[in-house]
């Protein structure tokens, strides 16, 4: 006896929950061959505001966690991705019309990239911070701190690896993230959200929106409670206009990049430097 097909409706990921878009809108996800794969929620301006609110509320807890603990949490994500490796491979193969070998390569690189960034959580401070020479009986230390809420437009041509490449480095330092996933290949983004929801990542640390980056990005760029903007996947948008909008609230902005390979610069891109002075003991 044959069973009925049960199509899945992929929802947003905001504040650790999976709401539908407040607008009620959805869009069809189709394969490269035009076959129906699933329905996904089409995020609205209100959804973006809700995601920023959730991200802001999560900043104190996540940034206040020890670097060692953040590294453990990020590594746990890699463990869960490894356990669901087959699912991600199938989704990428169907959605992007690539060979199984190519899909396996993308998933394996994404998992390895999580591990790479997890390892930096308790080490980047030693590399990007320093003790400064001063004239006088003082210690002068420069220490990197998280920027706060980072809004991200994920690479549009890579469903999982591109997403991981922009989300993971922002989390390392204690930032929280609102990310607009690939419009064409959103399946892996919501599956990643399911991984995050069952991991040790606190609610609101990562918020994932699906839909049209061109519709959502301007509201994130101009939002006063967003501290930084990563336009990695915004090369097809009016990203100069997004930079101008971001300037009104003094956001740090990372321009579109073709290369989002793992590197320390992506970790430190969204940090601020705090300088501390302390007198030396005169005893």
From TrEMBL:
Species whose genome carries this gene: Paramicrobacterium chengjingii
UniProt-listed Gene3D superfamilies: Aldehyde Dehydrogenase, Chain A, domain 1 (3.40.605.10)
Residue ranges annotated for the Aldehyde dehydrogenase domain, each copy included: 25-253
Alphabetized UniProt keyword annotations: Oxidoreductase
Keyword Protein biosynthesis: no
Pfam family, one: Aldedh
Entry's transmembrane regions: none
PANTHER family xrefs: ALDEHYDE DEHYDROGENASE-RELATED
Protein's UniProt name: Aldehyde dehydrogenase family protein
């Amino acid at each position: 006896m044959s069973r009925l097909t049960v199509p899945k409706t992929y929802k947003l990921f905001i504040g650790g929950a999976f709401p539908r878009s407040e607008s009620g809108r959805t869009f069809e996800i189709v394969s490269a061959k035009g076959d129906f794969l699933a329905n996904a929620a089409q995020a609205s301006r209100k959804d973006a505001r809700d995601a920023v609110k959730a991200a802001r509320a999560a900043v104190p807890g996540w940034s206040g966690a020890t670097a060692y603990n953040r590294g453990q949490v990020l590594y746990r994500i890699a463990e869960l991705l490894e356990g669901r490796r087959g699912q991600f491979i199938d989704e990428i193969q169907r959605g992007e019309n690539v060979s199984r070998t190519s899909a396996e390569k993308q998933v394996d690189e994404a998992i390895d990239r999580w591990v790479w960034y997890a390892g930096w959580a308790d080490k980047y401070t030693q590399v990007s911070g320093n003790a400064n020479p001063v004239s006088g009986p003082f210690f002068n230390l420069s220490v990197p701190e998280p920027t706060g809420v980072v809004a991200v437009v994920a690479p549009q041509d890579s469903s999982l690896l591109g997403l991981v490449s922009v989300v993971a480095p922002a989390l390392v330092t204690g930032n929280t993230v609102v990310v607009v996933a690939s419009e064409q290949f959103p399946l892996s983004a919501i599956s990643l959200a399911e991984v995050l929801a069952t991991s040790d990542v606190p609610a609101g640390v990562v918020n994932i929106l699906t839909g049209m980056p061109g519709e959502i990005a301007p509201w994130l760029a101009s939002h006063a409670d967003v501290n930084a903007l990563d336009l990695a996947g915004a090369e097809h948008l009016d990203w100069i206009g997004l930079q101008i909008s971001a300037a009104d609230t003094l956001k740090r902005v990372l321009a579109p990049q073709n290369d989002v390979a793992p590197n320390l610069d992506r970790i430190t891109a969204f940090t601020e430097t705090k300088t501390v002075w302390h007198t030396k003991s005169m005893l």
